[in-house]
Amino acid sequence: MKLVTFTGAGRDRVGAVVDTHLVDLNAAYAAALAANGDLESAEKADQTLPADMLGFIGGGAEAMAAAREAVRFARERGLDIPGAVFPLDRVRLRAPVPRPPKIICTGTNYEDYRQIIGLAKSPVPLIFLKAPSCVVGPGDPVQIPEGYGEVYHEYEFSCVIGKRCKGVPKERASEVIFGYTIFDDITGRSLEAKSREFQPWGKSIDTYGPMGPWIVTPDEMPKDLYNLRILRRRNGKVEAESNTSNMIFRFDDIVAFISTFWTLEPGDLITTASPMAGPIYPGDVIESEIEGIGVLRNPVDSVKLDPAYAQRIAL
Predict the structure, then answer these.
(1) Are the CB atoms for 270 and 159 separated by under 8 Å?
(2) Model's pTM, two decimal places?
(3) What is the CA radius of gyration of the chain?
């Protein structure tokens, strides 16, 4: 399934993309139960299939089974369930996980890009945290603070963790992955270059984490995750292209490494770093495309902030 978070009835809801429509999973599941005469369970559909993404992920196999039943019922009804099925182009998508518990990024993990920038190959994944508050969804603007230097677009094949875990063996890493998505690690390049200590600042500015457009469950991804075309566009022009075969550390390596030291939670996002990054500017439209997932598209704006801090560090 392609799972989304969307805004409906004034709050975030979980949906599945079915053809050109979006199925509100909780509402469709309740409708399916009611159609079978189980009105009591229909009124308590949230207990089996939570309406928010973190709750849904945490619901595990039971919630996923209910989601599949909701999609089956929607198809059976010809994608015509008032209040539960909508044309996709009329729905506002949010980031699939609007506020992940943790965003764990990996750095310098594409061999082609590593050779271009001339950094030594690390013996372990180079991981760092990015603030969950930076996350925005497809179509939301990336807002570049005026006066704070150059900003880069890094586009990253990412996974969402499906269960609480610690010390995951490499050979079992796939068991804790809920699905796959695209994450843009927008980076204040001038801040990062000025001082390594400024990296968390330059990585976690508001809107510097576009995610989406959806989470693709493992069963619907291409069988070979490490032979996927991945590219970055700016204003419709391809500026960089690579393949996931160029990864130095794969998801199993990264999950095993991280979980050795940190407990992972449902909804945590883990990235695999970016192929060749590039600068972006207000007025641009940026796109990240990964085979098997789709395209994440965001406009770029500027925002005026207090310039005093930029002046202090001579940007």
Answers:
(1) yes
(2) 0.96
(3) 20
